[in-house]
User: Which sequence fits this backbone?
């Protein structure tokens, strides 16, 4: 079965360590070309996330995108997904598809021209914050727990105009609800779990999950151990409780995967890197129908992106 992973942080590691080889650098990278091919990852979303020492400078966003081209796209038969047609072409021709997203708009400095530039460069989804506040909104770990700023509302309007997909992972709950009321497109949570199962601020409440489901969005179940289960070590079977809970809320066709590989230090036992995806698929097949498993690991994300990516110009 083909796998669609909605979030990894390979580009952050390549920015900090540009000497790394994306093809098979297995000591320092969780996601490599070799592991993607071994696991059957058909589609991988690569997030542009700036580590703290680079935060706030737009040139590092551009450098990250350059690394995406020079290290990732140049490494093998990988097709850059910017449109519906790109997505279909990759699927029909058995190519690995790579998407670009932005995690945290800090470096855009409130300049909407930068949003348009990123759209021209192929970024197709944007997470407004990481954990803390920026010029657009509060993140989920910001103690004041505020929502969108006026500049943030202008950002939402411009993203809607451009057709950019908006990602609520890391966003404060107040900002989530303000965004949900403003966005013309369904929202996604590229890498978030169910707060009812593991009550962490980074996880979603039942009300948030229900809102995403009703709007026809998708939630990428994430592999970050503290967001899966409160006590470590965390094993793969703990993910099933999150999947079951989202299904119980009507989300069977709204569940995907969002590993957060290369953005996490702790790992789920048996799911330490992208090459272990087969073991997760085998586990899912023991508990769910083939149709459900296909939806969870690829189909639900694929249908969403096929509907919401722009047509090729």
Assistant:
């Amino acid at each position: 079965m083909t796998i669609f992973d909605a979030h990894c942080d390979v580009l952050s590691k390549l920015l900090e360590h540009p000497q790394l080889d994306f093809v098979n650098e297995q000591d320092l990278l969780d996601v490599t070309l070799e592991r993607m091919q071994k696991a059957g990852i058909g589609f991988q979303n690569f997030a542009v996330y700036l580590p703290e020492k680079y935060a706030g400078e737009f040139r590092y966003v551009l450098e990250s995108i350059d690394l995406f081209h020079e290290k990732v796209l140049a490494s093998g038969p990988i097709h850059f997904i910017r449109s519906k047609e790109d997505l279909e072409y990759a699927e029909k021709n058995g190519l690995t598809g790579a998407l670009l997203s932005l995690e945290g708009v800090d470096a855009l400095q409130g300049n909407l021209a930068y949003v348009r530039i990123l759209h021209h460069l192929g970024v197709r989804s944007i997470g407004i914050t990481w954990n803390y506040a920026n010029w657009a909104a509060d993140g989920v770990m910001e103690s004041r727990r505020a929502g969108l700023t006026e500049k943030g509302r202008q950002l939402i309007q411009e993203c809607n105009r451009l057709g950019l997909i908006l990602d609520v992972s890391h966003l404060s709950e107040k900002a989530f609800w303000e965004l949900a009321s403003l966005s013309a497109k369904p929202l996604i949570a590229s890498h978030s779990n169910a707060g009812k199962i593991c009550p962490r601020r980074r996880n979603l409440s039942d009300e948030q999950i229900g809102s995403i489901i009703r709007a026809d969005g998708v939630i990428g179940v994430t592999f970050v151990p503290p967001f899966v289960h409160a006590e470590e070590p965390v094993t793969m079977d703990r993910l099933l409780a999150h999947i079951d809970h989202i299904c119980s809320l009507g989300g069977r066709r709204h569940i995907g995967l969002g590993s957060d590989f290369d953005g996490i230090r702790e790992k789920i036992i048996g799911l330490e890197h992208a090459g272990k995806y087969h073991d997760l698929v085998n586990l899912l097949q023991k508990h769910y129908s083939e149709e459900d498993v296909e939806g969870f690991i690829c189909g639900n994300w694929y249908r969403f992106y096929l509907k919401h990516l722009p047509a090729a110009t």
